[in-house]
Amino acid sequence: MSISMSSPMGLLGIIPGLFQVALLLSLVLLLINVAQFYMRRQWLLKAVQEFPSPPSHWLFGHKYEFQNDQELQQALKWVHEFPCACTRWMWGSKAFLMVHDPDYLKVILGRSDPKAMGSYRLLSPWIGEGLLLLNGPTWFQHRRMLTPAFHYDILKPYVQLTADSVQVMLEKWEELVTQDSHVELFEHVSLMTLDTIMKCAFSYHGNAQSNRSTHPYIQAVGDLSNLFFSRVRNALYQTDMIYRFTPEGRLNHQACELAHKHTDQVINQRKAYLQEERELEKIKRKKNLDFLDILLCAKMEDGSSLSDQDLRAEVDTFMFEGHDTTASGISWILYALAMHPKHQQTCREEIQSLLGDGSSITWSHLSQMPYTTMCIKEGLRLYPPVPSISRVLSKPITFPDGRSLPKGIIVSLNIHGLHHNPKVWSNPEVFDPFRFAPDSTQHSHAFLPFSGGSRNCIGKQFAMNEMKVAVALTLLRFELAPDPTRVPNPISRVVLRSTNGIHLHLKKL
């Protein structure tokens, strides 16, 4: 009599067979992946053969050269060794060309290559598909729609709003220095720039600086920046399915929810205000709309409004871009001035002659502080808020020296390396504001704190105005000096930060 297939003995007979099939399929998949890895690596080796780099491991790439938050320092060694560009291997099947030459950058930024979505897509759960991540016609449509939000008539009244936020920060510093003369700048400045962007771009007066503890949004942004940096450099974390179940993936999800909660609150408050038809019509009749009003009143080319998803993506993008980059810029500029007291004093004298006690600062004042502007630009050269950006080549490219790359290669535009390249700037580590004197000459793409080309920073003028106001009012109230026991260690995250904060001694004037 035959044994029934449903009996235990029948099942025991089937299991080894199923195991063998699963093992065979796994082996086939492994061989396919190995073949794909080998073919991809061989293609990359051939594609970048004209751009040498230090020796790399066939599997781990240059991982061991970029350890312990010394990424910027290691990259600068390569800038000295390879003045135009060099290849950096992330792992065996991923490499990109690291570019730090102005002629190379001019060629790349003069094209319309898309963002390298391999890494930028990892920001999508946080900031969505907004202006930073969009490509092609949709990016152009959104850029054209939002450009009026940065018209000078819109930016003029922002000067006083910014000054109000800065004064709140300075008053907090006055209280703090009665207890201890040193202040860690970055968190305070981040709260101030968040307060400013919410007032200016979103008509939201939440007073982020009033809370004594860390603002949840600021905390979320710091966490997301670190998690993004960690994920980009981990080959196993590139797959969303795997990353979602890791401890870092769960932390990333929680931080995204915190950030979205903040932006949703801003959007919903403005939407509620516009529910009144009279208020909506009044806003539509305004000659110039602020950033959020433009988004809420926008009509796409097909006549439709922005979807809730697109609306939140643009708000998330600009909420982050509009506060974190300027916070980085202002903090490092103040540190640079603290390190160079003679230049600091010259700026202070210029500002005192212009503003007196600083009780009022206006749009017209911002163009009347040339020396302070030179120092701000030199601070941005030494400490660019966004250390690097990347593109993926949509077609082959040939550089001025004749070397070329095929379509599909990722290029990293190393802004920090460019600004410290001795081939471009003499004595690049020296703080010298006269590099930006009115009669000075420099390559059109030697100084790119706000990127360049058609995808340059849409909020460049807004950011420069905020930096001028913050620096001017700070120097009127305090004398700045470095804390020799806590020298900042610059690190490359989404923006330029410091592993140990940016600590200064403040002396009230």
Largest sheet: 4 strands, mixed
Number of domains in the coordinates?
Answer: 1
- CATH level 1 class label: Mainly Alpha
SS-derived structural category = alpha+beta
Instruction: Briefly note the CATH topology name.
Output: Cytochrome p450
Which assembly state applies to the chains in this document? single chain
Order of helices and strands: HHEEHHHHHHEHHHHHHHHHEEEEHHEEEE
Question: How many β-strand runs?
Answer: 11
- Poorly predicted regions are none
CATH architecture: Orthogonal Bundle
- Determine the mean pLDDT: 90
Shape: globular
| CATH homologous superfamily grouping | Cytochrome P450
Determine the number of helices (DSSP H or I, runs of at least 4 residues): 19
Quote the beta fraction.
5-15%
Q: Determine the fraction of residues in helical runs and give it as a percent range.
A: 40-55%
Terminal residue distance: 103 Å
Q: Over all CA atoms, what is the radius of gyration?
A: 26 Å
Give, in spatial order, the strands making up the sheet with the most strands.
1-2-7-4
Descriptive account of the structure:
With 509 residues, the chain is α+β, with helices and mostly antiparallel strands. Helix content is 53%, strand content 9%. It has one domain: Cytochrome P450 (Cytochrome p450). It contains 19 helices and 11 strands. The strands form 4 sheets. A 4-stranded mixed sheet has the order 1-2-7-4. The protein has a 3-stranded antiparallel sheet with strand order 3-11-8. The chain has a two-stranded antiparallel sheet with strand order 5-6. A hairpin with a 5-residue loop joins strand 5 and strand 6.
